[in-house]
Design goal:
The chain has 279 residues and is mainly α. The protein folds into two domains: 103 residues, Receptor-associated Protein (Up-down Bundle); 107 residues, no CATH class. Helix content is 78%, strand content 0%. It is built from ten helices and no strands. Helix 1 runs antiparallel to helix 2, helix 2 packs across helix 3 and helix 8 runs antiparallel to helix 9. It is elongated and about 90 Å long. The two termini are 36 Å apart.
Length: 279
Amino acid sequence: MKIKFRLEYLIGISLGSFLLLVNILLFLDTRWFYSILVLSLAIISSQFWFDFFKENKRQQQMEEYFLEFIRSLVETVKGGISIPAAILNISDKDYGPLTPNVRKLSSQIRLGIPIHGALITFANNTQNKVIKRSVAIIIEAEESGGNIEDVLEAVTDSVVQVKRVGEERKASTFSQIVQGYIIFFVFIGIMLLLQVKLFPTLLEFSGELAGGLGGASFASAGDLNLDAIFLALIIIQGLFAGLMIGKFSEGSIRYGIKHSLVLIISALLLITTIKGGLL
């Protein structure tokens, strides 16, 4: 999946950069500096991520319309028409985001390009694994002399089954997604409680105790940058929790990126707002 830079990206970059400039000029020495910094960086990169998620959504829609395309092809082939002629007959229908690819396929057939080569180009242009696999099965079955009607129906049933399994998985894992978010924010709450309340109190108490006893303070453990360690733990937790949520709910780690972004950005905003800084 390739995301190319577009002029629309300048909108988010400009807004985020303006907010970043205002933040440096007006909030540099305030506790809100890091919160606004995280927000401005999120806005700068937002257009890229929106397109990434939009492309994921488009790929899912292409799979749905591919089913409609195959069903139309089956009905036409059953009338005794060859696959190339059937494709030409059904190419005028609306197939959503798949329409440009279908029109290109029909144009290649009209130009006399062999059907196998045209189908392979069609599948590659969609950049969709389900469509590529289905087209490969159709080509292999036709080359082996199988009944093309049965093959097309089998491909349709296979794609429908894959979609149904994905929807059932998404429905069954919804509660786990909610639990994943709840567990992550509980984890953040515990980390913040340790950093803001517990550890400062323990270090202060250890210093007073060591001073009263005339010995060395074990508060020197504070030399370890616990804030940096906790921040790294939260980011790592958010990253992998989001990826696993995407894997369980959508069947692909790629779809977990949006969950990881939501978790990490929410965590950073929460930390910087409560603590007034990252560290």
